[in-house]
Amino acid sequence: MIKEILKGAVMGIANIIPGVSGGTMAVSMGIYDKIIHAVTHLFSEFKKSMKILIPIGIGIVIAIVGVARLIEYMFEVIPFQTNLLFIGLILGGLPSIGKKVKGNPVKVGHILAFVVFFVLVVGCASLEGQSGGSADLSFSFLNVIKLLGVGVVASATMVVPGVSGSMVLMVMGYYESILGTVNQFVDHVLAFDIQGIMKDCGVLVPFGIGVVAGIFVIAKLIEIVFEKWPLLAYWSIIGLIVASPVAILMMNGFGALTVLTLVTGVLALGLGVLVALKLGEE
User: Fold this and answer.
1) Which end of the chain is more exposed for a tag (fewer CB within 10 A), N or C?
2) What percent of the chain clears pLDDT 90, i.e. is strictly above it?
C-alpha cells in the first residue's frame, strides 16, 4: 500500500514538471499496464481496479497538493541536479521496457514508430518557447467549455508515456494558471475561505472532469493498441522515453555550472535511476 502510494506520488510530481511524463514514470515503475487495465475495466472488475487506483490516486493528489511548491523551489535553487534526478527516473525504466521487445526481430515499422514518437516529444518541447503566459480563467460558460477541453487534452498526454501533460498545458498557455489555482485552492482550504474555495472550484472542477474523461478515452485506445500491435506500441514508448531527457534539457535552465554542481548532478542522476529500478521491482 505504502509503496503504491509512493509510486503515485512520483507520477504526480512528474505531471507538474514541464517535460516530464507521468506515463513514463508509470512505465519506469512497472505499473503502467496495471493502471491502463484498471481504468478500462473499472466497472467490470470494480473491486480489483479500485485496489490499484486508490493508493496510486492518493499518491498523485498528495504530490500535486503537497510537493508542487517544493519542486518549484528545487528548480529555482538546484535546477541542474533536479533535472538530472528526473532524467535518471526516466532512464531507469528503459531496462523493463527493453525486456518487452528483447528476442523479437526489429522491423522497419518499429524503427519508424521509434523515430516518429521521438520527434513528437522533441517537437513539443521546442514549441514551449512559443507558449502563452497565463490564460484567462474568469468564470464564464465559454471558459468552462475551454477548461473541459483543456482537461481532456492534458489528461490524454499525461497517460501517454513520454509526453508531458504539463508541457502541453504550457504550450496551450494554461500551465501557470492551473498550477497557480491549485496552490491558491490549498491556501484557501487552510484559511477556511469558502468564497475563495468556490472560486477555485469554478476552474478546477471543469478541468478535473475533462481530465477524468480524457483518461478513460485514451486508456481504452491504448489498450486496443497494445492488444493488436504490442511490439509497435513498445517501440513507440521507447522512442518517447529516450526523447524525454532531451525535452527536459531543452525546456529547463541549469543556472551556473561548477565542479560541485556537476558532481552532485551525476549523483542525482544515479539516485533517480536507482529509485526507478527499485520502484519498478515487483
Assistant:
1) C
2) 18
